[in-house]
Automatic annotation (TrEMBL):
One of its GO terms (molecular function) is metal ion binding. This is Adiponectin receptor protein. It is a multi-pass membrane protein. The keyword Transmembrane helix applies. Its main location: membrane. Belongs to the ADIPOR family. It holds the Pfam family HlyIII. The keyword Membrane applies. Zn(2+) binds at H151, H273, H277. GO terms for biological process: adiponectin-activated signaling pathway. GO terms for cellular component: plasma membrane. Keywords: Membrane, Metal-binding, Transmembrane, Transmembrane helix, Zinc. It is found in: Membrane. The lineage of its organism: Eukaryota, Metazoa, Spiralia, Lophotrochozoa, Mollusca.
Amino acid sequence: MESQEKPIANGEDGKLPLELEEDLPGVETSLLNVPSKCAEQAEEFVKKVWAAGWNVAHHDTLPDWLKDNDFLLRGHRVPTNSFLACFKSIFRIHTETGNIWTHLLGMIAFLGIAAYFLTRPSIEIQWQEKAVFSAFFMGAILCMTFSWVFHTVYCHSERVGRFFNKLDYCGIALLTIGSFVPWLYYSFYYRLEPKVTYLALIIFLGTICIVVSMWDKFAQPQYRPLRAGVFVALALGWLVLMALLYIVGAVIYAARIPERIFPGKFDIWFQSHQIFHVFVLAGAFVHYHGISEIANYRLTLGDCIAKEFE
C-alpha cells in the first residue's frame, strides 16, 4: 500500500509550504485564505496612512494665521489645502473638535424643530406664525451652519479660513436679527408703528455688525474684545435670560477662560470657544421657548389686551 501523500513544499497541492504551516499552528493554511490576509494587510495599511495623515501639531509650529489662541498649546491641525481632509477631520480629535460638534448638533436640532413647526396643519399653527418663526429658525440654522463649517475648514488655507471666519461672524448677526422678528411681532402685536420702528432699528444694527464682520482686521486675535463687544451690544434687546447667556458666553470667549488660567490644560475640551458655543446654543433654545410662550399668550389672551387700545 502506498503511503499517504506528503506535503509539497512548493504548495502545488493547494496548501501553504510546510515551514509556514509550522509557524501557524491550528490555522487553516489553504491558499483560499491568502486573499483575506492580503485584505487585512491592506486595511491595516490604510489605517496607518489615515492615522499618519492626522498628526496634530504644537501651537509654536503653526503658521501665524492659525495662531488664534496662544493658550491652546497642543492638538492643532496643520494646513491641509484640501476640503476633503478638512471634513474628514470632523471625526478626529483636535482643538476644533468640540467647536465643530457643538454647533453641528445644534444645526441638526434646529432643522428638526423647524421641520416639525412648519409642517403643522394650519388649524394648529397659522401661516402668519410660521412666517414669523421662520425668521428665527433661519437665523439659528445659518448661525450654527456657518459656525461648524468655519471650524471645519479653518485649517484649509489662510484665504479660505479668513472667508469662512467672516461668515461665522455674519451668522451671529443673522441669529440676532432673526431672533428679534418674532419677539417684536408679538410684543407689539396690536401696535404697528413701534413694531416697524424697532424692527428697522435691529435690522440696521445687525447690518452694521455684518459689515464690520467683513472687515479683515476684525478677525485678528487682538480684536477679540471688540468682536465680543459688538455682539454684546447687539444682544442687549433679547429676552433677559437669553441675553444673559449670550453675554456671559461672549465674556468667556473674550477673556479666554479657563485656558488663560491653565495654559495647555484645555487644549481639546472645555476651552473658552466651546463654552461660548454652548451658551449661544442654550440662549437660542431659551429664546425659542420665550417666543413660543409670547405667541401662545397673544393668540389665546390677545382679545383682552386689544381692548386696552380701543
